[in-house]
Amino acid sequence: xxxxxxxxxxxxxxxxxxxxxxxxxxxxxxxxxxxxxxxxxxxxxxxxxxxxxxxxxxxxxxxxxxxxxxxxxxxxxxxxxxxxxxxxxxxxxxxxxxxxxxxxxxxxxxxxxxxxxxxxxxxxxxxxxxxxxxxxxxxxxxxxxxxxxxxxxxxxxxxxxxxxxxxxxxxxxxxxxxxxxxxx
Length: 184
Known about the structure:
Elements: H1 2-17, E1 20-25, H2 49-71, E2 76-81, H3 118-130, E3 141-143, E4 146-147, H4 167-181
């Protein structure tokens, strides 16, 4: 909701500055859940934090796709970015005993060797914002400074799920988000 609300408030400036880009941060966590349009806020179903996180990351990818479909012809595009696994202070909010189960570290506290530094993790975000080859290109899911491949056996640690590019879900989520934020 925050991505849509902020971008909607900035849209007059983005259109005036076109070509302009919006970058929405997603995550491999989007593989945990599609967006539940009937009950996005867990009003009638049990709350599960990692499913909710996944739902929010899928929503960010759908937001980028829908923004591009709506505004791309006017010069405003958006891409979703998975910055990869980065150990930051955000993990301090996840209980230590859950971190090995998430694959962030082993039982002895050694970081996953695939972890990246914040600088490495920022590379794709910066590329999405200023890379010349992405001028006028939007609606993509990016990782490792390239368009992500589909998730699957050949790509088990990255990749994009089909739910992150579903045009019907993106349109419905945009409409629901406008209603919930008071923009409609």
